[in-house]
Amino acid sequence: MHPFELHKATSAAQAASLLAGKDDGRFLAGGQSLIAAMKLRLNAPTDLVDLSGIADLKGIRSDGRTITVGAMTTHAEVAANADVKRSLPALATLANGIGDRQVRNVGTIGGSIANNDPAADYPAGVLGLGATINTNKRAIPADQFFRGLYDTALEAGELITSISFPIPQKAAYMKFKNPASRFAIVGVMVSKDANGARVAVTGGGAGVFRVADMEKALAANWSPDAIANVKVPASGLSSDLHASADYRAHLIGVMARRAVAAAG
Question: 59 pLDDT band (50/70/90 cuts)?
């Protein structure tokens, strides 16, 4: 690990101020991805701003229409929250399937989506539920946030403060997981609301993406049979030691149908 300077912040404004002007500064959330990369010398920030002391970035609020999750809320807290389990159980299921107990009790939702790992679960949840990412500067719709492999719409010094999830009529998340890491070989979030249907896929390629043909079919007929013949092309999907692009294309259809069935 390369040397770095650690700064502790007690407010979002202070965190942004501490990072300003640094050669290669990074915000530190749960550290489940960043610290591992630093140990392998794949990432070498000059400065880290620790967000763990910022109370305003933690917690979950519900107003009956929207559930807002603070960026520093852990996966375990999302999975166990009564409002989430009652109003948006698909999100609780997703959070409860991330990594192992240590990861779930340390990793945060804000850190996960800011990192935007192509096999992470939360990007599918955020995109598939049509959430809004709130930062210290603006509100970013999910469709505009994820830009590809480890790339997001966040600007230099921009800090995620919370994520707002509209409560859908129906939703479910299904994942075919790597048995060792529990990352998604393919994970699919489906949801339905008054505006139609959303289908978001993680683990399939270089980043999370929506499947428009499945969404159109489900908007007309919310049932697993409606998407049974919708095929996702293997071109553009990932091939690695865990699964070929063809197998991932097949899994997207299987996981999507299972998610629709689970949503009811």
Answer: very high
